[in-house]
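Lab notebook, design round three. We kept the backbone fixed and only want residue identities now. Task for the bench partner: fill in a sequence for the structure below.
Input structure tokens:
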């Protein structure tokens, strides 16, 4: 799993403590799969890009309260 810097990313910058470096997993579009697998997709401009925030969805998943035994 490769991660890239997410400083300034509208969505992913919200998932770390304020003073921590912001990181996100590198997400490929389906049309990039072949290039990733055959090694032709190797330039930084092609590969190491933040995935567009408008194509991501974040949903709260709160932890259930613990039940005392």
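Proposed sequence:
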């Amino acid at each position: 799993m490769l991660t890239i810097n997410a400083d300034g990313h509208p969505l992913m910058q919200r998932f770390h403590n304020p003073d921590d470096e912001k990181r996100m997993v590198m997400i490929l579009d389906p049309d990039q799969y072949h290039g990733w697998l055959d090694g032709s997709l190797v330039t930084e401009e092609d590969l190491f890009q933040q995935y567009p925030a408008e194509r991501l969805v974040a949903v709260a998943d709160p932890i259930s309260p613990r039940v005392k035994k």
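Keep this in mind before ordering anything: The beta strands are 3-5, 23-25.
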